[in-house]
Amino acid sequence: MINEQYKYSELTSKIIGCAMAVHKVLGNGFQEVIYQRALELEMNLAGIKHSREFEMPIFYREVQIGTRRVDFLIEGAIAVELKALIKLEDVHLAQAINYLEAYNLEVGLLINFGETSLNFKRLNNKKYKSIP
User: Fold this and answer.
1) For a pLDDT cut of 70, what percent of the chain falls above it?
2) Which InterPro entries match (predicted)?
3) Interval 15-55: pLDDT, tens
4) pLDDT, position 3
5) Could you please report the per-residue DSSP string of the chain?
């Protein structure tokens, strides 16, 4: 089995490249939704299949207890969570990892457009369960 860190490496690199292009043009200081719209345009140009504001169910003991929208679900496999904050904190990282676990996705990205330089984190779900 391919290690998830490398399995999606090319695709996550393309997404990060799109985010860098957006940050280069817009810089920091806008609301998250502005970066979300711009990133969607960049990913369309790059041919990256995605769903924006993708609503996913949250389960507890196999009972759906609510839903949560991930900023982007890329090719049905990678969650991308955007922020526009002065600085990412541990709580934002924990939140993004919780989404991966709740959705049972292997890989995710946490991207912050609010800093002077684009800040991103590649995330791996250590609790991922492969479904045959």
Assistant:
1) 95
2) GxxExxY
3) 999 999 999 999 999 999 999 999 999 999 999 999 999 99
4) 52
5) ---HHHHTHHHHHHHHHHHHHHHHHH-S-S-HHHHHHHHHHHHHHHT--EEEEEEEEEEETTEEEEEEEEEEEETTTEEEEEE--SS--HHHHHHHHHHHHHHT-SEEEEEE-SSSS-EEEEEE-TT-----
**What is the pLDDT at residue 124?**
92
Q: Look at the domain 4-124 and name its fold.
A: Lambda Exonuclease; Chain A (3.90.320)
80: β partners: 72, 109
Q: In what order do the strands lie in the sheet with 63-74?
A: 50-60, 63-74, 78-83, 107-112, 119-124
Task: State the Cα–Cα distance between residues 84 and 118, nearest whole angstrom.
Answer: 10
For residue 106, give both structure tokens.
Answer: 């292997």
pLDDT at 103: 85
Listed by start position, the domains of the chain span 4-124
The amino acid that residue 32 corresponds to is E
